[in-house]
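Progress note, sequence design subtask.
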């Protein structure tokens, strides 16, 4: 086990890779869908469970 590289050493050896346009779009879509789903479920809960708000 002494000859295994440590995680921190491996991270330091890695090159910097910028986020590609496709990855940026995926992140934006994921956040957008998540926020829209939260809003939808909130409105759904207000409609069907009005006493809890």
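Output:
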């Amino acid at each position: 086990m002494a000859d295994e590289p440590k995680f921190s050493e491996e991270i330091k050896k890695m090159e910097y890779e910028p986020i590609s346009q496709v990855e940026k779009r995926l992140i934006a879509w994921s956040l957008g869908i998540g926020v829209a789903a939260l809003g939808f479920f909130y409105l759904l809960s207000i409609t069907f469970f009005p006493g809890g708000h």
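The helical segments are 7-13, 21-48. Work on this subtask will continue into the next period as scheduled.
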